[in-house]
Amino acid sequence: MHDSIQPMHMIHDEKLRAVRESLLARGAELRDRARRIQDDLGRRTTPLPRDAPDAAVAMENDEILEAIHESARSELRHIERALARLEVGTYGLCEKCGGRIAIDRLRAVPYAVECQRCAADS
Fold first, then answer.
1. Per the confidence metrics, is the pTM higher than 0.85?
2. Angle at 92 between CA 91 and CA 97, to 5 degrees
3. Displacement of CA 10 from its chain's centroid (Å)
């Protein structure tokens, strides 16, 4: 065998390793974001202003931060689920029909659990 040619399973393993590393990096980023938001919401970094209008703006900003925080936590749950699927060998397989999830779909949504057809039917 030529040195530059790798067996198919090695290429597949390398791609899965890259997916895992990408998911882990995104998870770390989301955990850091969630921690910073929690600090802000807990007034650990900036206390609530004493001026009523400024306090109202800060409270409105808190609502936005809470929405961002929930979005980050939701994505983190999806990432953790994808990492678990990688561990058991079901990553990239549709949970509904058992078929393969298109690589383009996984590139766009690396934690997708349904193929395009099943997702459209949901």
1. no
2. 110
3. 26
